[in-house]
């Protein structure tokens, strides 16, 4: 026991110099200040059993979530013997991992586990998928190097077929290093010394890992674009093929054909086919538009036909919606959804959990936050400097919740009118690569209506050029150059932050006005706080006073919408996070501080509020 205690203390200090070979087959959550009800009831034999990629679904797959061996050693050391068991996909710093040790930039985290290939998969290509691992991940299969990936938030995959040894049982080894706030990479609010608005870091595998079999050619991705003005849906089917000396199509083989069927339940709406890699346009008659009030989704069946044979089939879905700027009858430039103004009203959503940190305890837990926000009357959330797994956006699509998606920030911070920071070529490449991947991997979700490139002055550089590039890269969404404090006059919105009370700047003709952050009313709830010492932008003494102040704030917000042309408002925040007690709910999600019905009523007590309430149900 003394040896384990010493190892834990040294690791927390970030100066571990050795590994222990002690292995315990049992698993239990690590000691922690708070747990959610989902974390208290977690099944370590089957964490996150849901299929991880709802936008491109295959029926045949195998989850690798569960207990893995792990070890932590210095980066320069070779792979050590396992020192214990870790529950994937929870980060090593979290209680639900069973480890709860803090990493540093001098350490490497090693994972390993065996897996067995089903006989029914014989003769097929095997794809190994990681939904997210933070930050630099290297993978070996049966001692053969398979892939190396840099990026903390984006999914990546590898065809591991060439690396498999004979037999059905195989060994998977993963090495992860993460500099957290001591590197230039995007990291959001993760720091090595949390406090205030900065939170505990996430390192290693923090989303699902799985394997799926495919044929010699398969559907690698889809690119889905809706056009409600012309009642059409465009689907580009991206093909991938195996490469190797045996059993693979010749590289000069003609491109495959793709067939797309659009359905609503059992009713076929449209069918079209075309060459893989080119847009296939489908007519959508009597279009049902996607909105928070009616989040209608069309089902898609997609087939890939190579050499006259069907080589892959996947299911997907699409929503017909349009986000744009327009001018309302009162002369204000506003944000339109489906060619009509809709007041977008939501919370700042940090996406942190007391027991899982970046990783929700379960899919049900993640969905709960969205459902509660809908009950409170919100129709939008700003996903703050964090990117979620793809099931999250499936739930916002399905439940009808608009999303402003922030790019996780990094680097130095600037404030006010100071010039943008200067980035080196390597740092710029990291940022642009990860931002591009965020857009590519989340492109098809209709609920995402705005990309937020920079939060305030966090890592803000070359703002006009970066904004222009991504405005052209994705023409189906709005771009928010910088949410708060460091506006450069670019992008589709003028976004201000103001604490605690709401404000609006003078109206503009070219851009819509949005209040990207306000509120931050803090109320600690005894027995549900991360620490006894906590804070809020404005501390409240009880829930009655909190509700009264919240009502006052939203009376002002509604006036700003009606009289000043405000298009959207973002209240801080969904839940408490560590020492912050600004949440509508406590950090453990066990207390709804004001009652969701009271929150909803407070936001919809005027004519504009009542109108928008109907839209946001």
* Model regions low in confidence, pLDDT < 50 over at least 5 residues: 1-24, 606-617
> Might you state the CATH topology name of the largest domain?
TIM Barrel
CATH superfamily of the largest domain: Glycosidases
Large-scale geometry: globular
Structural class: alpha/beta
- Please give the largest β-sheet: 8 strands, parallel
Main features:
disordered C terminus; 3 domains; TIM Barrel; 32% strand; Immunoglobulin-like; Jelly Rolls; alpha/beta; 617 residues
Kindly describe this structure.
The protein has 617 residues and is of the alpha/beta class. It has three domains: 2-214, Sandwich (Jelly Rolls), CATH 2.60.120; 229-318, Immunoglobulin-like, CATH 2.60.40; 323-616, TIM Barrel (Alpha-Beta Barrel), CATH 3.20.20. Helix content is 17%, strand content 32%. It has nine helices and 34 strands. It has an eight-stranded parallel β-sheet with strand order 29-28-27-26-25-34-31-30, covered by helices on one side. Strands 3-2-4-10-7-8 form a six-stranded antiparallel β-sheet, with no helix packed on it. α3 packs across α8 and α7 runs parallel beside α8. It is globular. 49% of the residues are buried. Mean pLDDT is 92; it is low at 1-24 and 606-617.
